[in-house]
Amino acid sequence: MSEENSVETIALKVDASGLKCPMPVIRAKKGISTVEIGQNMEIIATDPGAMADFKAWARSTGNELLLAEQNGDVFRFVIRRLK
User: Fold this and answer.
1) Mean pLDDT of the chain
2) Which residues is 40 bridged to in the sheet?
3) Cα–Cα distance between 44 and 66 in angstroms, integer?
4) Would the keyword Transferase turn up in this protein's UniProt record (predicted)?
5) Which of 1, 69, 75, 76 is most buried, with most CB under 10 Å away?
C-alpha cells in the first residue's frame, strides 16, 4: 500500500465532538468537498449514532470508509474521497 493510500495519511481533520446528529455528517459533507479525490478525511465524533450514520453516509455518497473505531465515547472515522 502506498503512503498516499494509507489510513495514516490524512488531508483534513474534522472535529465534530459534542455535536448531535445530523451535524457530524453535515460537517463531514462540507469537509469532503475540500479534499482532492483519493485523499483521506478523518472525523472525530462523540454522538452515539455516529457509527451507523457514517457507514450509511459513506455508502450513500460513494466514498470509502477506511476506518471506523470507537475508543470510549469517542468515534474516529477515516473516509477516502472517491467522487
Assistant:
1) 93
2) 80
3) 14
4) yes
5) 75
Query: From CA 30, how far away is CA 35, in angstroms rounded?
Result: 10
What pLDDT shows up at residue 22?
94
Contacts of 71 (CB under 8 A, 6+ apart): none
pLDDT in tens, 10-45: 999 999 999 999 999 999 999 999 999 999 999 999
User: What kind of fold does domain 8-80 have according to CATH?
Assistant: Translation Initiation Factor IF3 (3.30.110)
- Which cell numbers in the block locate residue 11? 488531508
Sorting pLDDT into bands at 50, 70 and 90, what band is 5? low
Give residue 6's identity as a one-letter amino acid code.
S
pTM of the model: 0.90
Query: Catalytic residue numbers?
Result: 21
